[in-house]
Amino acid sequence: MRCAALVRMLAAAAVAAGTALAAAGDEAPELNVVTTFPNNPFSLVQNGRANRVVLSISNPPGADRALVLEEVSGAFLDPKKQDGQRNRVLRNMTATRIKNVPITNVGGQPLQVPYDFYSEFKPQSLDVEFRVKVLDQGNSRRYNLGVYRGSVLVEEPTQSLFDLQLLSVYAVMALVVAGAAYLVYQQYLAAYFPKAPRKRTQAPRSAQPAATHDEWLPEQNVRARKAVPKRR
What we know:
Layout: H1 2-26, E1 32-36, E2 44-46, E3 51-58, E4 67-77, E5 89-92, E6 96-102, E7 111-117, E8 124-136, E9 141-155, H2 164-189, H3 219-227
Parallel strand pairs: 2-9
Antiparallel strand pairs: 1-3, 3-7, 4-5, 4-6, 4-8, 8-9
């Protein structure tokens, strides 16, 4: 009797342990993630340009789950609204696909993942969040994990007067203004400034005496003409 009861207790404990392990395997994994804005201590975001963050990802100490990084994404959030409210997400950022990169420490250092995103908002303060999609190779499940949430300041990029894009705009505007001025002149002002008629001048013809050409005469005829005495 005691042996049978002991066997039942061990079986129940094994089932409970298996259930606990399965539940633990189904839970979303935990990651240690540090998000930095390189050379951007004030988290400034410029419109129309690539803005970069770097995610330093590592497994917590003692974690033994085989995780693979598949995607990095993000979103701009309205700071005046709470999660779950309508229009809380202003715009989703373009996701970057990553080809099965294992989340392991490389040489004792966390995995470094750069992520570029773009903004097209008027200058203001907004909230942003970044997420990663990982694959658990133990149970073949994918998890979409939030790894960062903070505030950024959106601003217009500073431009120089000698910027190539601005110079091209200036050139196009100058051509448009010159063309419009020419059309206005031809349409309204050309009649008030008639062109003076051109006078054609001909060079005077100088009278030249007819020259005697003896080159084509035979030599004896030329001698005969020279030998004829002049009449007095």
